Structures are given as structure tokens and as C-alpha cells.
């Protein structure tokens, strides 16, 4: 059974991926937005403002969040970045969420204005900035892991969260044997992936792991933006890995992209392009475009109109996706680096960390035109506190 089939095929074909979460933020702003990049190192966050026209970055603040060693807080910007939500194991307070206001440059300011004591394991904010969801971990009588999804009303003016009184959904792992309670290798894990552009759908997923393989099962649920209620799970494209073979899935407003890597050197790979409703539009192999087969992986911009291939020949090639014509065509010139993330306005590309001449790690920054796909390299970089710092883009307006 081909691995590019939609969700039910994943149960049989285990060799399938890691999601690339690429969702646009709502941009109803009355002032010019500021591209903010947060660099997170353990429990310390640095705030940079990045010029979208040139890529040069200015450091505007550093905040260390009180947290025990090795707790690794998760930082989630609000939809307009006026508040920063920090999910952490906060010592004696236990697992919870802290809300920090930000200044005009997007730099978080202590102390937090709210602390929500709640057994979170995940937290996402909808593109409209008025609704959020957290994951909590109840346990059922069979001891099979299940997770509750709780909605929160969010006031974008004050940043304050208010929990809805009951769970929006309780979800259990798929019935596939790799997800069963008799799997000796790992319990299934559940996570919230993000929203569609309008915030009317929530995307979430289960990961089930075996000895040397794993499978991701993705679902969509309709969102009642007034009450936070969630509709039933609707299966969408899945992914996974087995030994060296794997595939990755990118959810975008234009398409769902599933890239199948056969897992050996110079292997002929495949890209499957689905409509956002998970209906296959067309496959791409070397007969359409060499890059679809002779690349090690892909990334997509925030719109999903441009696909970036990590070519076997070296560098990252830019292509444009045309869903109606069922084509993928090269545009512009290649860039040297692979991609970590895009700015939320799609005007900047943050490359994967690179070791500079002085032995320090830096983030290459490129200007990007989301209308043409053209990339401009102005030789701009941002110094990383250490090799394992993570990037969190935001847009303040």
C-alpha cells in the first residue's frame, strides 16, 4: 500500500513524519508591525527586532524566567505579541503558565501579571488572539493514556486567561497496535500542532513509537470561537519513520505537503501535494522536477506557495507551487543554508544555525519576497547564546 495515501494507510505503512507547523497569524493592525525574534536558551529569552527589508537585528532585552534547572520553559507569543505566555514546571508552584507583558519592542517585562496553576503539557493561541487551548493529562480506568483539551478565553487587551469550566475534548490514542497499552517501548504522546489561517480548525496529533519506528497521526477539529467547543476528530495526512526511511508533513494554507525520503544516500524521493482538506492533488517525482526526487527534505513559506528543497547538489532551491496547474517550478537563485523558520509576515527567513569563523554559532538572516519567491542575502547574522538555543518568531503590532 503506498505510503502517500491519506490517514488510514498509516496504520499499515509505518514508514512515514515530523510536522512543520507553518501557520499565518492574523494581521489586523493599525500600526506598522515589528518583526520580533526571541532566542530561548534554557530559561532565558533574548528579544531581537529584525529589519524585514534588510535582515539586520537589534537586541532589545533579556529576561530570565525563574524556573528550576533543566525545566526548559516553553514561550508562546500572543497573537499581537503584547503578551508572552510561558509554560513551565515552576518549582513549588508546579506546572503552570505565566503571563508576561511586553514593551513596545516586544521584550517581556517581569513580574508576570498572571500565573495559571494548571497541569499543562502544551499550549497554543488561535490566530485571532481571543482563544487558547491547553492539554492536560487525565487517566482512564484502563490506564491507557488519554489527554484532555481545555479552552481558555483570552483577552488580547489585558492578556488575561480565563478557563472554560469543562474540557473541550478528551482524546485517546488510535487503535493501531503500535499505540496500544501492550507496546513496551513508549506510551503514545499527544500534542497541539496549531490552527488554520482563520482559526476555525485546530490541528493536533498523536505520536506512537516502536523499537526503531514511529507513526504520527494528525487530526483536525472544528473550533467554536465563541465557546471554545471542539468538533469530532477528522483524520488527515499522517507521517512516520522506520529505520532510515521517513517522511515529513507540512500543513500550510495552500496545501499539505508530504515528502517521502527513502533513507539512503542519493535515494530517489517523492513529494505528494494535497489540498488542505487532505485530498491528493498530485505527486511530484523527477519526471516533473528533479528536486522532488533528488533532495533530502523540504520547507515551505508561511503561505505554502513556495517550497524550498534541500538539494543533493548542495544549497536550498526555491520553487513555486501552482495548485490549479499541478506544477512546481524553480524561481530565483538558491540559498546556501537550510531553513529554521520564517518570520510571521513571511518577509524574513531564519537559516539553520551555522558555525562562524570565530567558532561561535550564528543564525543567517535572509530577506524574502513572498510575492515572487526571491531571496536577498545581505550577509546578516544573529549571534546565538549557544548551539542549542531555539528560535521563536513573533509579530508585534
How would you characterize the overall build of this protein?
By secondary structure, this protein is mostly beta strands. It has one helix and 32 strands. The strands form six sheets. Strands 1, 14, 15, 16, 17, 18, 19, 20, 21 and 22 form a ten-stranded mixed sheet that branches. Strands 9, 10, 11, 12 and 13 form a five-stranded antiparallel sheet that branches.
Tags for this model:
mainly beta, ten-stranded mixed sheet, 1% helix, disordered N terminus
Q: What is the mean predicted local confidence, pLDDT? A: 87
CA radius of gyration? 21 Å
Approximate helicity band: under 10%
State the distance separating the first and last CA atoms.
Answer: 48 Å
Shape: globular
The assigned structural class equals mainly beta
Main β-sheet description: 10 strands, mixed
Strand content: over 45%
Number of discrete helical segments: 1
Find the count of extended strands (DSSP E, 2+ residues). 32
Low-confidence stretches: 1-29
Task: Write a brief caption for the model.
By secondary structure, the protein is mainly β. The chain has one helix spanning 290-293; strands at 19-21, 34-41, 44-50, 57-64, 74-77, 83-89, 95-101, 114-117, 122-125, 131-136, 147-154, 161-163, 169-171, 189-195, 201-209, 213-222, 234-235, 239-242, 245-251, 256-261, 270-274, 280-284, 295-300, 306-311, 316-322, 327-330, 339-342, 348-351, 354-355, 361-368, 375-383, 390-396. The strands form six sheets. Strands 1, 14, 15, 16, 17, 18, 19, 20, 21 and 22 form a ten-stranded mixed beta sheet that branches.
Amino acid at each position: 500500500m503506498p505510503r502517500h495515501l491519506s490517514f488510514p494507510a498509516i496504520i499499515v505503512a509505518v514508514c512515514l513524519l515530523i510536522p512543520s507547523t507553518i501557520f499565518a497569524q492574523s494581521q489586523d493592525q493599525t500600526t506598522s508591525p515589528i518583526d520580533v525574534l526571541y532566542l530561548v536558551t534554557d530559561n532565558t529569552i533574548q528579544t531581537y527586532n529584525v529589519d524585514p527589508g534588510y535582515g539586520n537585528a537589534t537586541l532589545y532585552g533579556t529576561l530570565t524566567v525563574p524556573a528550576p534547572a533543566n525545566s526548559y520553559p516553553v514561550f508562546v507569543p500572543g497573537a499581537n505579541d503584547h503578551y508572552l505566555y510561558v509554560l513551565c514546571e515552576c518549582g513549588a508552584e508546579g506546572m503552570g503558565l505565566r503571563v508576561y507583558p511586553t514593551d513596545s519592542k516586544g521584550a517581556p517585562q517581569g513580574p508576570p501579571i498572571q500565573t495559571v496553576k494548571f497541569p499543562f503539557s502544551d499550549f497554543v493561541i488561535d490566530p485571532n488572539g481571543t482563544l487558547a487551548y491547553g492539554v492536560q493529562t487525565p487517566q482512564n480506568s484502563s490506564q491507557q493514556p488519554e489527554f484532555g483539551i481545555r479552552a481558555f478565553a483570552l483577552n488580547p487587551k489585558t492578556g488575561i486567561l480565563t478557563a472554560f469550566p469543562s474540557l473541550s475534548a478528551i482524546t485517546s490514542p488510535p487503535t493501531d497496535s503500535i499505540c496500544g497499552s501492550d507496546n513496551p517501548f513508549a506510551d503514545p504522546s499527544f500534542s497541539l500542532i496549531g490552527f488554520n489561517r482563520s482559526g476555525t480548525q485546530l490541528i493536533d496529533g498523536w505520536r506512537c513509537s516502536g523499537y526503531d519506528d514511529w507513526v504520527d497521526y494528525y487530526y483536525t477539529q472544528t473550533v467554536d470561537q465563541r465557546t471554545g467547543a471542539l468538533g469530532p476528530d477528522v483524520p488527515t495526512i499522517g507521517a512516520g519513520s522506520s529505520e532510515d526511511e521517513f517522511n515529513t508533513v507540512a500543513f500550510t494554507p495552500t496545501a499539505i505537503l508530504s515528502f517521502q525520503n527513502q533513507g539512503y544516500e542519493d535515494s530517489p524521493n517523492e513529494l505528494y501535494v494535497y489540498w488542505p482538506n487532505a485530498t491528493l492533488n498530485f505527486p511530484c517525482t523527477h519526471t516533473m522536477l528533479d528536486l522532488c526526487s533528488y533532495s533530502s527534505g523540504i520547507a515551505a513559506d508561511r503561505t505554502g506557495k513556495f517550497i524550498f528543497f534541500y538539494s543533493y547538489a548542495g544549497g536550498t532551491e526555491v520553487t513555486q507551487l501552482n495548485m490549479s496547474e499541478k506544477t512546481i517550478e524553480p524561481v530565483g537563485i538558491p540559498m546556501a543554508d537550510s531553513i529554521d523558520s520564517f518570520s510571521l509576515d513571511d518577509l524574513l527567513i531564519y537559516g539553520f544555525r551555522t558555525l562562524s569563523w570565530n567558532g561561535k554559532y550564528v543564525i543567517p538572516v535572509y530577506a524574502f519576497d513572498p510575492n515572487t519567491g526571491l531571496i536577498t542575502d545581505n550577509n546578516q547574522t544573529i549571534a546565538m547564546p549557544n548551539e542549542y538555543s531555539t528560535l521563536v518568531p513573533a509579530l508585534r503590532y
